Amino acid sequence: MDRRAFLSSAAAAALVGYISGGQAAKAAPLGKVRELGVLRVAVYKDNRPWSWRKDGKLTGIDVDLAQALAKGLGVRADIAELVADESADDDLRNGVWKGGLLGFQPADIMLHVPFDRTFAARNDQVAIIAPYYRESFQFAAVKGEIDVNAPPTQYRGKRLAVEIDSIPDFYLIGTFGGILARDVVHFPGGTEAVTALTDGRADGALASRAQIEAVLHDSGATNIVRRTSPLPAFTSAGWDIGMAVKENSRNLGDAIETILADMTQSGALKAIFERHGVVYAPAVAAG
């Protein structure tokens, strides 16, 4: 999946690491969180619209969700920004069950984790829980520049923005005999690719649906159209996003899933997405 499109350095939080010795060390993970009065939540750094800094302040869908989960537990949230490693497996090790080499302390829970059976099976140090969104890729273009629902071969000669070394990048460069390779313009992330579209530096962009919707919402651009039909030969039909806790913290995971279910039923989860300009799409696994 396009993990790099969703991805920032650790926030200091000495009180939130699991302490050794004393009565708190003997408590169950959920009890420990409540005793300390803090839920340490790992989110990805520079992962707009999920977790990123605007005017120096940490914001995003996952940031708001972390606050809501902590409130549901009756504690405060300590949100730590995790720099993405080479793989999501590495991120689970750094963010949840072991910690990072640069002093990142393991979190009680990590957000924006692929909710996938195969992925979960090879990461048995954690429990992957609480799927909360269904992500997918989408193509968008400047109105009048590209027929978004036409075969992609007709995009030839247009500036096509993508995140470098991502699934959209590999698709546009390698599919259709590589005829679009020279038209691809690379950006550090998916949101930067979509921003190039709204700024007039690109004619089309292939990015995640959340990235497209958030950038269009924030920019107020009205001249962008989005493809409604599937892209031919595109291998990713979408993926569920969930959370992860340590394997021995399943009672914390159970409590989190109860809170998330209540938020889904009340509309509070949908409202978080709407605040950031993203249309809430329930995870398939949550159905």
Automatic annotation (TrEMBL):
<dbReference type="InterPro" id="IPR001638">
    <property type="entry name" value="Solute-binding_3/MltF_N"/>
</dbReference>
<dbReference type="Pfam" id="PF00497">
    <property type="entry name" value="SBP_bac_3"/>
</dbReference>
<protein>
    <submittedName>
        <fullName>Periplasmic component of amino acid ABC-type transporter/signal transduction system</fullName>
    </submittedName>
</protein>
<feature type="domain" description="Solute-binding protein family 3/N-terminal">
    <location>
        <begin position="38"/>
        <end position="279"/>
    </location>
</feature>
<keyword id="KW-0732">Signal</keyword>
